[in-house]
Write a structure and sequence with these properties.
352 residues; alpha/beta; Rossmann fold; CBS-domain; six-stranded mixed sheet; four-stranded antiparallel sheet; 14 helices; 13 strands; 21% strand; disordered N terminus; binds adenosine-5'-triphosphate
Amino acid sequence: MKFSDEDCPVTISSPVISCRNVWKIFGPNPAQHMADQKNGALPDPAQRDQHVTAVRDVTLDIAPGEMLVIMGLSGSGKSTLVRCLSRLIRITGGTVSVEGRDIGTLDETGLIELRRRKMGMVFQSFGLLPHRTILDNVAFPLEMRGQDRRARYARAGEMLELVGLKGREGYFPRELSGGQQQRVGIARSLVIEPDIWFLDEPFSALDPLIRREMQDEFLRLKGLLNKTIVFITHDFDEALRLADRIAIMKNGAIEQCDTPDRIVLHPATEYVARFTADIDRARVVRAAGIARPPSGALPDGEAVAGTKTVRDLGRQIVTDTRAEIPVAGSDGRLLGVMDREKALDILLGGAT
Ligand SMILES: Nc1ncnc2c1ncn2[C@@H]1O[C@H](COP(=O)(O)OP(=O)(O)OP(=O)(O)O)[C@@H](O)[C@H]1O
């Protein structure tokens, strides 16, 4: 019997963003400081104290349409990495390519084009212009692009409708709640139809209920728009709800970049294991993630959907009498079987 390899990590053949050995060092002599670190030379303490290695030798590919979530403690380099990917800052070493083009070689015009046409950004602070209506705020990037008034208002109106703010076009930012203001920020970043969308803790200033609502809204938009998304968050629940892959950073380096399933089941380092220790694995691990070939004949009876989490399947895992439960992929093909004991362990919070 041939089993599908749906649960294997993706290899990305034509990434939208590709970074190779990217470094970003702040300080008076970053190139020298990078060379010292690469050579294993210990910089003298005075030089070391003057420099911060915010991004350390990061190599990463991001697939078209992928949602990559970046996590890590405060100061681990998440925002700096995103700034390197969008060339908001110049990198100290390595290359960042967008659709195969090294963005380090772009001149000023090329850079402006890249930011105005290809990349959208949303930050934690909404950054709305207080004296402009929200329609004007959303239309602003198109004004910068020189688009005529009628066309830009029409487009901005569509974006406001998309984020559920139709009817509020004439309001000023101060007349909206935090969640609504962030919706305006999202509409403004989408108005230029970016292929790549960077979001740096966009919901962290919102209270938990609104935050949840914004995540739902975001998932809806993600489904509609099919963009490549890089999203920073401190919140594991948020990451698990949104991510195709999660990159965990420590001291500027990526410790592990993997699917949520694999991050919790196969942490690559001690640090990742500790970082993810409090996560309820049953909510993360999907049947496909623990499917393996059957030990003997394929068990009779219905298969469970590989996309369901162990938590979703909780009742069945407890009551099913089969030692191995067949698991099917989204196309109906058999992925393998789920060991019921192992699934029970995950469900009850046992070691995995
Ligand atoms: N312009 C700068 N000049 C000097 N150091 C900087 C600069 N920007 C960032 N850093 C330093 O680089 C390191 C990484 O910062 P960064 O903001 O990327 O971390 P982060 O993971 O996004 O943190 P947070 O979660 O708190 O936003 C930190 O030590 C920070 O102080």
